[in-house]
Structure formats: C-alpha cells, structure tokens
Amino acid sequence: MFSPKIVAILDKWLARTLVLLMSLMVLNVTWQVMSRYIFQNPSAFTDELSRYMLIWLGMLGAAYVAGQNKHLAIDILPQSLKGKQKIYLQVIINFFILVFAIAVMIGGGANLVYITFVLEQKSATLQLPLALIYSMIPFSGLLVVYYQLAQITSSLHTLKKRT
C-alpha cells in the first residue's frame, strides 16, 4: 500500500500538477496586468481566480514538500542524533505531522467544506461554490496523511532490518 512505486507516481503527479497550477497562475496574473495597464480595462475575474489558485497551489505544495520530507523544520536535534535514535525521532515527528493533518487539514477542512456547502456560499465574481475551492484543504490533508504513513512505515521497516 505504501510502496515506493506508488509514492513515486504520486510525487510525479503532484509535481506536474503544481507546475501546471503555477503556469496557469502566471498566465492569469499576466493577463490581469496587461488588461489593467495596457488595455485600460481590468479583467474582473482574474484577481479572484489567482487567489483561489494560490490556495490550491499552497495546499498541494504543502502536501508535496511533506512527502519529500522538505518541509520547514528545526533540525538541530535530528542532526545531532545517529542510528536508531534518529529514526525513532523521525517516526515521532512524522506522527505529529500525521496528527496535525488529520485534525486540522482533514477534520477542520472537511468542516469548512461542509459549512460552505450547506450555506451554498459562492465566490463573488466567478460564482463558484466555495466548497469546491476549500475542498483542496482536506484533499491535501489526505495526501499528507498518506505520505506520513509511508514514511513511518519505511522508517519502521528500516528499524526492523537493523535489529
């Protein structure tokens, strides 16, 4: 279930999605600048679209860096440890990230999606359901959970080999 092949496929898919989102966002913002300053007729939807694309980019990017184990961290303690102690610490760190993703990203994000869905909130200009926009939060949380479980499984497998 947490095979390196599946993780590699997920990594590739996420990386390509992030590149696509960033490219579309650059085009969107470029059009906004051109329409405002060159054509003197600002486009109404581009500001809102870039805001929502930034939310999606940030959430998917957070999941991607968590999967790559490149997230922001204070690494003084892990650098000073060696062997089994370092692996145990990594498992503990991954566990806390897992708990955060489940509680905040999945739990809180699903609650946000539910509330905006029930209230039928829509974006001001694009008239998109906000539940659709915010659904990226629990989805990214699921990706983080998968990555953390894969890393914990890998670390425990490494520990088992050493004993």
TrEMBL record:
Q: Where are the bilayer-spanning segments?
A: 13-34, 49-66, 87-114, 126-147
InterPro entries xrefs: DctQ, TRAP_DctQ
**Would the keyword Hydrolase turn up in this protein's UniProt record?**
no
Keywords, sorted A to Z:
Cell inner membrane, Cell membrane, Membrane, Transmembrane, Transmembrane helix, Transport
Q: Could you name the Gene Ontology cellular component terms for this entry?
A: plasma membrane
Q: Does the keyword Zinc-finger apply?
A: no
Q: What GO MF annotations does this protein's record show?
A: transmembrane transporter activity
Q: Biological process (GO) annotations? A: C4-dicarboxylate transport
Mode of membrane association: Multi-pass membrane protein
Q: What region holds the Tripartite ATP-independent periplasmic transporters DctQ component domain?
A: 25-155
Q: Where is the signal peptide?
A: none
Q: Where in the cell is it found?
A: Cell inner membrane
Q: What is stated as this protein's family in its record?
A: Belongs to the TRAP transporter small permease family.
- Listed name of the protein: TRAP transporter small permease
Report the source organism. Answer: Litoribacter ruber
